[in-house]
Amino acid sequence: MDTKSAFIAVAGSPNVGKSTLVNRLVGEKVSIVSSKPQTTRNRLSGILTQNGYQMVFIDTPGIFDAKNRLGEYMVKTAYEAVRNADAVLLVCDATRGADERDKAVMGELVKKGVPVAAVVNKKDAAGVEKCEAAAAELKAAGADGVYVISAKTGEGVTELLEALKKYLKEGPLYYPEDYYTDQPERAIAAEIIREKALLLLREEVPHGIGVLIEKVSRREERDITDVCAVIICERETHKAIIIGRGGRQLKRIGSEARKDLEELFGTKVFLELFVKVEPSWRDSKRVMRELGYE
């Protein structure tokens, strides 16, 4: 059977719903999701394979003004993914409208001949007028089709997926048919723990944390996976917040993470969590390399 494939980068400003959209398109949880901007740090791929075709959705970090080495890495990663894609889904938040950065990215890509489909997201939270205004601006900026959706509820996503088939080209299936992401288990495990920390910690802490998986081992005779992970933060005050009084906050993070880890590994999970302070780690080449950001 002839096969078709396409690499589609999902880009846009921080916190517009890119990761939620990728998860919805693939039908699996590929990317972690939180209300905090800049949740996605690495390039992550969600893979949808059906009926002889394969779409690889590249969930990129948001495009923003970088303030440290980590930020620079994230923006560079986003632009590289966009430039190498067969097509780009540029996502904007209908409640905020299409901003100048959206239109500038659109213009740059159109000049380079990269097809850009614009997605006006969060239809469930914005009125019809805002959605129509954002759609009109993106169309005028050169979008190859504009789609108004709600990644949260799924409204309009089936129609979007159908429309994206025009970007498929004859070629191989680049991943096995049962793959839904290209991320190794350790990377997924680290992201699961970071997601739970993002959801439970105060506003001032999340951007300053990373997660390092130190060990993953399987006890075959008992069907248990042992995971040892370190949450890295930048200040002693942040460490105290992460641990919480009597260790309660760290236990909550571990308890929430364990549920998803057990689903990931298909076994019971024994999770050990530690917290380590690395001052200004987001500007440290060594720490960023250890965390997989270099």
Describe this structure as you would to a colleague.
By secondary structure, this protein is α/β, with parallel strands linked by helices. The chain folds into 2 domains: 4-170, Rossmann fold (3-Layer(aba) Sandwich); 185-290, 2-Layer Sandwich (GMP Synthetase, Chain A, domain 3), CATH 3.30.300.20. The protein is 36% helix and 24% strand. It has helices at residues 18-26, 69-83, 100-111, 128-140, 157-164, 185-200, 236-243, 248-265, 285-290, and strands spanning 4-12, 44-50, 53-59, 87-93, 116-121, 146-148, 169-170, 210-219, 224-233, 268-277. The strands form 2 sheets. Strands 1, 2, 3, 4, 5, 6 and 7 form a 7-stranded mixed beta sheet that branches. Helix 6 packs antiparallel against helix 8 (248-265). It is globular.
Unreliable sequence segments: 37-41
Gap between N and C termini: 39 Å
Query: What composes the largest sheet?
Result: 7 strands, mixed
The level 1 CATH classification of the largest domain is Alpha Beta
Reported by name, the CATH topology of the largest domain is Rossmann fold
Strand content: 15-25%
Q: Which structural category fits the helices and strands?
A: alpha/beta
| Order of helix and strand elements from N to C terminus | EHEEHEHEHEHEHEEHHEH
Number of helices: 9
Helix-residue proportion: 25-40%
Give the integer mean of the pLDDT values.
86
**Mass-distribution shape:** globular
Radius of gyration from CA coordinates: 20 Å
What is the total number of structural domains? 2
Number of strands: 10
